[in-house]
Amino acid sequence: MNHYSRKQRQLKYLVKRTNILLQSNNGLIDNRIERLRLKIQILLDDLKSVIHHIQLRKTVGALLLVLGLSIGNIRSQVFADPVNNPFGAIYQSADEFGDVMDLGFDFVDLDGDGDLDILSLQYSEDYSYDTGPISIKYQQNVGTNTEAEFSLPYTDQFNLSLQPIEGCEFSSTLAIDIDAVDLDGDGDYDVVLSAIYSACYSYTKTGPEAVYLNNLYLWIENIGTGTSPEFTAPSINPFGIQSPTESNPSWEGVLLGTDFVDIDNDGDFDILSGYRFYDEESGAYSNEFVFQRNIGTDLNPNFDAPEYNPFNIQPIAFDNGYSSDIQFVDVDQDGDLDFFTASYENSIVYYENTGDVNAPVFSLPAPAPFNLDNSMGWIFFDFCDIDNDGDVDFFSHDVYNYDYQMYNCEYQENISEITSIPNHSEYISLYPNPVSNNLTVDLGDLSGVNTSIKLYDAFSRLVYENQSTATTQIDVSTFAKGIYTVEISNTDKVLRSKVVVE
Fold first, then answer.
1. More confident call, 156 vs 129
2. pTM for this one?
3. pLDDT digits (tens, 9 = 90+) for 64-88
4. 191-213 burial: b if 16+ Cβ within 10 Å, else e
5. Which residues of 73-83 are buried (b: 16+ CB within 10 A; e: fewer)?
6. Pick among 3.40.50.300, 3.40.50.200, 2.60.40.3080, 3.40.50.2300: CATH of 429-501
7. What is the H or E stretch that residue 105 is in?
8. First to last CA, the chain
């Protein structure tokens, strides 16, 4: 036992040393780190037979994925080299820089046909005060859920517009990020924008007058359906949401990327945003992550006062940078949500969730993981399973980089080896797929074994859970249309696959 205790201490020391070197190298792996990686892998191979893999994961943390280490069946994610402008995704070309810029975007099955469409924000310098600089673009996926092909962008599709904000005769808004989320739990996607400012105009005898609001969230409710959306006028900071400026008036800054996520696994959406501000007390710029917990329900959300840097998420310290975009995603497919951010100086940064699905705890930041493009610049990004193969792929685009050049959209396919459930596999089969009423889960060779069956929606929310030893039917007739993940697990294995509810 002393022999293995000594190896545990060696492992902790090597992990600490490697993390220090990675941070000093801005995430670049040199010969020193490669030698340490080999030593760590040897120790993991020796210890995995006597120490549970969960404990080893917590010891190694983000290095498991960043360095391509393995513990049993747990392996690194690998993304292919970038491909420009895939599937007809439209972004502005470099010669248009200065007139038009693309900002935040989100992949979502907005029309409920089982494949992913694109919502994006576009900034134009050529605007009047009664139109505003931001338009919302929609690109429909006219291909399939395995072979995407996007239409040209539409503006004001489904009445989705920033004109006017509720209570204003007209408005001018600088929104920076867009999220599609079923915030009110009615089974269709609403849209929420993170905005740096909005000018709310009204007419007076002397002409239009404006009230300026800084750092706000705009909720655009879907009053249509999951297959035929129709959107209302935007409303400001609904459900008790507070802007960072409101909660800390001395922090005059800029609201940046936002993600809506059920981080505490209680069935409703919470909010995390990046925020860069000038701190009057210290006389310096600072970066924070602002968290607002939903203390209501999925049907009646109510957000608590903001907290800063929750769950051990530590902002990266730099003078001129900021977290331009953020996202939670289960990139390592271990059942909990990891955290990614994009910073102006460090590009993609990864925080592994070393806690669990109910009580997240995040590791120290690891820059430039998994071969994700690390070009310097102001970047927006999104993870989604665009090819429906059971893992998340990566899309990104730079607004501009240090040379003030614009880039097109980049796509990096996840080429990691995954354990998924092919149709009619040796273990189980799922049918029909797509499904409208009853989904049959035939356990096949796993019949007689106590097996957990779970369904997760596109937001990683658990929507169905059951224990079974035989073929099971799941009634999905009341589920929102879209793509779901089926997870089948027992003491020996975890299998995942996608099904489409239509």
1. 156
2. 0.74
3. 666 767 665 445 677 888 888 889 8
4. bbbbbeebbbbeeeeeeeeeeeb
5. ebbbbebeebe
6. 2.60.40.3080
7. strand 100-108
8. 55
